[in-house]
Amino acid sequence: MYTKKFEMRWSDIDSNLHLRNSAYVDYMSHTRMSYFAQKGISQAKLSELSLGPVVLHEHIHYFKEALAGGPVTVSLALTGHSKDGVFFSFVHNFYDDKGRNIARCRMLGAWIDLKSRKLTPPMAEMWSFLAEIPKAENFKELTKEDLRTFGEYPEDLSI
After folding, report:
1. Which of 52, 108, 135, 143 has the most CB within a 10 Å radius?
2. Cα separation of 135 and 116, whole Å?
């Protein structure tokens, strides 16, 4: 399991003196990108490949407060990807300084071509990288049904 430890900064705390909601999102993104960079897929490398990861949705479940002053450790595990690799899903667990699981987030993402701004499968060199990401016990191949789990579709305004 890949983990990253964070020291809570003053700016990460909300008026209730615990970790603010958006800091959880920041920590997860930083954990993913730190793992990617450690494996040779830095932001510069992604830019060179004209490839970008995008978040389609994140669902955070909070179990216990992360209070100001303590460190937070965030884990990363791959829970799935589509057959063509366009879509991927991760689970992040958050732990306090005693190792207690204080929150969990499941996220769904995709790869986009940074020039066309369209969803795209990753190139061959990315497949070996994806194969190395620690997999969750419940890892599976994502299907079209998994992408619409919540039944959300766009509803445009009539202008």
Report:
1. 108
2. 30
- Model-level pTM? 0.91
Whether 58 is covered by a domain: the verdict is yes
Q: Map tokens 């490839």 to a residue.
A: 51
Q: How many Å apart are CA 47 and CA 36, to the nearest integer? A: 13
Q: 81 lies in which domain range?
A: 2-140
Q: Provide the β-strand partners of residue 107.
A: 58, 90
Task: Find out whether 76 and 90 touch, Cβ atoms under 8 Å.
Answer: yes
Side-chain half-sphere CA neighbours of 135 within 13 A: 12
Residue 102 lies in a domain: yes
- How far apart CA 80 and CA 146 sit, in angstroms, is 10
Q: pLDDT tens digit string along 98-129? A: 999 999 999 999 999 999 999 999 988 787 77
